[in-house]
Here is the input.
Amino acid sequence: MRSFVRIGSRESILAVRQAEIIRERILAYDPEISVEIVTMKTTGDKIMDKSLEKIGGKGLFVKELDRALLDGRIDIAVHSLKDVPMEVNPDLPLLAYSRREDPRDVLILRRGLEKLPENAVVGTSSRRRALQMSKLFPGCTFRGIRGNVHTRMRKLEEEGYDATLLAAAGLKRLGMEHVIGRYFSTEEMIPAAGQGILAVQGRRGETFGWIPALDDPAGRAAACAERQFIRTCGGGCTSPSAAYAEVSGGELRIRGLYYDENSGEYREGELCADISRAEQAGEELARRLMEDQAAGGKYDRERAEM
Ligand SMILES: NCc1[nH]cc(CCC(=O)O)c1CC(=O)O
Here is the structure.
């Protein structure tokens, strides 16, 4: 019997491209499988004039897809892992984690600029990016910006920003590397947990023959470590806390940034562990940073936050 898979995706160009990447991998495993992509508008895509923080956080991008999975309208959902809330509904587990695309954040300059001016106005709604950017370029100010990659590129030209920050992964998937003005190393700017990894979500108790072929052990270990770091830090999906794990051979090195909402202090550190202990490594690093009052710096919230 010919098998049939319906992939649910948000309808943004990047989301559809990501669903196509997963479709290509399923077809590489078995070209006989029939794969359909079903797109839907999520609450996060519909409400564009408010900050995500005000309307309920990043989870808004996945809720409609959760419902479609539960109703049986789709068989799997494909997400950017960094948009998936840290607590996942146990009825809708993450079945596979992709190999990681470039995890770095990048700077995109307004047309005509060769480098970031002194006192630049930077468009970002991410407190993680604003905090780390203001360490590198102390003169910057930040203004919220929302919308998909193309909308942001337009707003950058029309709405008085000098630059914006995006994930290299999304731009590369869209073939838009040419807009990148500067890459931040993962040391300079710790990426969001899961940045660059695609997650395949399914229904509990159901799996597919091709799932193991899509699941990347290094991507999975990094995802587990980074997400456990963030869970342990607390602070929710708008917290600047960040973690990035690199896997080589059987070893994992996780680097994290912990931000203390009460004091406005941040602390960075790293540790190494065997990949079989990925989750413990994330948790251990978070606990150390939360306890180690000495290791940090202070973030000037008044000036640097939107
Ligand atoms: N929050 C939107 C979002 N979710 C995932 C990506 C990039 C792709 C990825 O991380 O895999 C982006 C855009 C961006 O931050 O530039």
Notes: The first helix runs from residue 13 to 29. DSSP finds eleven helices and 14 strands in the chain.
